[in-house]
From TrEMBL:
Highest taxon in the source lineage: Eukaryota
UniProt GO cellular component terms: cytosol
Alphabetical list of SUPFAM superfamilies matching this protein: Class I glutamine amidotransferase-like
Full protein name: Gamma-glutamyl peptidase 5-like isoform X2
Source organism: Momordica charantia (Bitter gourd)
């Protein structure tokens, strides 16, 4: 019998930097979450590529990535993604939502907030034992974050002085990435993994 199988539902185009260095965001997620003996597949849901209904059952879990799109938009692919989420929920499939894949205005009645901040009232939530959303980007490596900051400066979205402050924070925050990785793996793959997480 084969190992576990997971699908990454890609909700954005890959940046040129991430394509060149990691083979795209699919590669970033597999590096972070993948383990020997597992199969990982990618679906570019933002381009309308979804798993067939018959294939949904073969997966042990799904990861929904970040996106520049508005999670509340009525784009066809977002509506299709919501339908898929309802199916995954009905099947009790593990679903890890990252940023865009997490965004909700209000939680459904059975959901529980498990992380919050002054800026965001719902940093993390869980729905039963099979769905978890994280507002941040635990998949981002330090080099991806630093490159993203540089791109924001180049496009005049942020000022150079603010970019310097952000880079200092990124460099100070790097050690917690391993804890985020373990948290995501433990959630997706269950209790057989080490549940001791220290931030």
């Amino acid at each position: 019998m084969g190992g576990k199988r997971f699908a990454v539902l890609l909700c954005a185009e890959d940046s040129e930097y991430v394509k060149k260095k990691y083979g795209g965001y699919f590669g970033v997620f597999v590096r972070m979450l993948g383990e020997e003996g597992e199969t990982w597949d990618a679906y570019r849901v933002a381009d309308g590529e979804f798993p067939d209904d018959d294939d949904v059952g073969i997966y042990d879990g799904f990861v929904i990535t970040g996106s520049c799109s508005d999670a509340d938009a009525n784009d066809a692919w977002i509506c299709d993604l919501l339908l898929l989420l309802k199916k995954l929920n009905a099947l009790n499939k593990k679903v890890l939502g990252i940023c865009f894949g997490h965004q909700v205005r209000e939680l459904p009645p059975k959901a529980e907030v498990i992380g919050w901040s002054e800026k965001t009232g719902i940093e993390m939530f869980k729905y039963g034992d099979h769905m978890m959303g994280i507002q941040g980007h635990p998949e981002y490596t330090m080099d991806i974050l630093l490159h993203l900051i540089d791109r924001l400066v180049q496009r005049n979205f942020i000022m150079e002085t603010y970019a310097k402050e952000l880079k200092v924070k990124v460099e100070e925050g790097e050690p917690s990435r391993e804890a985020w990785k373990r948290l995501c793996i433990n959630f997706l793959k269950g209790a057989s993994h080490d549940n001791k997480i220290t931030f």
